[in-house]
Amino acid sequence: MNVFLDFEASSLSDHSYPIEIAWVFEDGRTQSHLIAPAPGWDDWNAEAERIHGLSRDTLIRDGVSHDSVARQMVEALSGHALFASAPSWDGKWMSVLLRAAGFPRHTLRLRDTDIALRDAATRILRDSLSPESLEARIDELVAWSHTIKDSTPAHRALADAMEERAIWQKVCDRAQEMAASPGPAT
Q1: How far apart are CA 174 and CA 124, in angstroms?
Q2: Exposure string (b/e) for 11-46, b if CB count within 10 Å is 16 or more?
Q3: Signed CA dihedral, 127, 129, 130, 133: sign only
Q4: Spatial separation of the C-alpha atoms in residues 170 and 116, rounded to whole Å
């Protein structure tokens, strides 16, 4: 099953670490965690805090231990297709979290959400369009998906992961409409 993930982080520096994670399964199930800093995670950026609104004190007080979050993440997400809108950044933070909890860094792997969009559109449209038209329609749907994104992300993991899933669902719905439209495949 497809799962859409998002992380918030202490900064965008090389030493940044994840402070919040959320995931949303394609069926709508969600999970979200504030992550208490692991020993040695001391990078902090006041501008990042201003953007996501989470203080380091909040994470220390209300966050779940990094190893507990990592175990829950591996248990819940293993065997699923994992997607993020910024897989290089989110993948970095996922790797930091996994390694801090003693897991190999590639225990889980993220791919770009555009891959999930392309896969869904292909599955829905492949029997209703000619091969010549299929790729163009898929490109059109993926390009359209970029126009419907909220221009100002919430910068909270659950809200941003839910938006990714909502965009995926809109692409699926639009592809279904295309597949059901009357007329010969072009």
Answers
A1: 10
A2: beeeebbbbbbbbbbbeeeebbbbbbbbeebebbee
A3: negative
A4: 12
CATH classification at residue 18: 3.30.420.10
| CA–CA distance, 74 with 94 (Å, rounded to integer) | 11
Are 75 and 155 found together in one domain? no
Q: Does pTM top 0.85 for this prediction?
A: yes
Q: Which of 88, 111, 134 is the last residue of a domain?
A: 111
| pLDDT tens readout for residues 108-141 | 999 999 999 999 999 999 988 888 889 989 999 9
Which two structure tokens, joined as six digits, stand for 128? 């209703």
Instruction: Give 182's pLDDT tier (boundaries 50, 70, 90).
Output: very low
Asked if 99 and 105 count as a contact pair (C-beta separation under 8 A), the reply is yes
Question: Which residues, in sequence order, are CB contacts of 142 under 8 Å at separation 6+?
Answer: 114, 117, 118, 121, 171
Q: Are residues 54 and 133 in the same domain?
A: no
